[in-house]
């Protein structure tokens, strides 16, 4: 048997329920106003602090150019080792034609004098750190992160509204949806503000490292560049010496040697290398030798020349970073940096195109 | 301190200039070696060897000094990178939680009318 409902208790319960509902509605409207006002304050705050946050397109362009620049800077060292390998191979070849030893070993190619590997590793480590930083900056600055977040928080709001409607707690789901939307907006704004602050902090820290490291980085790359230039000079001399030998043949032939001074230089510059008797080459062989030497040398020289302005580009990169951090509207420094890196890339592309044609 | 830094900078600049000038001279002498004036072949070779000896020392030592500075700054730069990576991870976590919450609430909303 079902017991009869207690009318008195039921009435009391309904009165309490109605009171609670009114209190809830009042609370919601207060909360609504509070949330709206807070959102407004945050919106104003973001407008002011937004000056500290770089624009997405600028950051992406900066990150891409920085990655390219660090690759170019590192390739100065690669070219140094490559030219060193060519010198070692040429010297070993001259050694081999003397026929004094059956086993000629080509020495390992080295950077500078072979004592700087650890130091160059520290330099490339710094370059890698710059590149990683630029990539992280671009990823953290991606506005999609917060836009997506806003959508998701808003959808939470909508979901709450649906739950509320489902349990019939109110007859005004629109208001709940409105509040939910404000919550979503508020979280987006707050997150954006937080992200701006964090990004500005990280950029400030990076700028400090870049400013303190600028001179050393430019100097390190320049030292390696100059050393590569000297190695290239040496390789050019080796090719000239080879050309002189195949052109004139051995001095014992009895004819006056027009290339006597060159050969003297060759023996002085590369002791014990150019004392092998070489059968004079045919004119066709000399022609081919000349063309091959010139092509190889001019290709290497063009590659090195393309990397000449890496130091300047590093300076432009640091300046662009500073400007992006402090003044979003001033794109001049960024454009200068992009132009500078673009010129290096164009020159290297021309070298590659000339090589393949 | 400031005076020492200025002196050091000036010293660095001077070393850099010496390096540039000797490298340029090295290049000119190397070009001349292809067709040297009579009797100068050995002299050019000796000069080039002397320049190489000086510049090798300057460049190896200079690179070493620069590497010391850059090695210390790499950590600072990595710190900034870590901050940015953490920020990205935080934003993604918030988004993931919000997404999960929305999905959960939608499920609850669809079940409730059936109860």
Attribute tags:
heterodimer; A: 357 residues; mainly alpha; 9 helices; 0% strand; disordered N terminus; B: 115 residues; 2 helices; rod-shaped
Could you characterize what this model shows?
The complex is a heterodimer of chains A (about 350) and B (about 120). Chain A is an all-alpha fold and about 350 residues long. Chain A has a domain at about 55-140 and about 210-355. Helices cover about 80% and strands about 0% of the residues of chain A. Chain A contains 9 helices and no strands. In chain A, α3 (about 115-140) runs antiparallel to α5. Chain B is rod-shaped and about 110 Å long. Chain B has helices at about 1-30, 40-110. With about 120 residues, chain B is mainly α. Chain B contains 2 helices and no strands. Chain B has one domain. In chain B, α1 crosses α2 (about 40-110). Classes of the chains: A mainly alpha (about 350), B mainly alpha (about 120). Chains A and B meet through α3, α4, α5 and α6 of A and α1 and α2 of B.
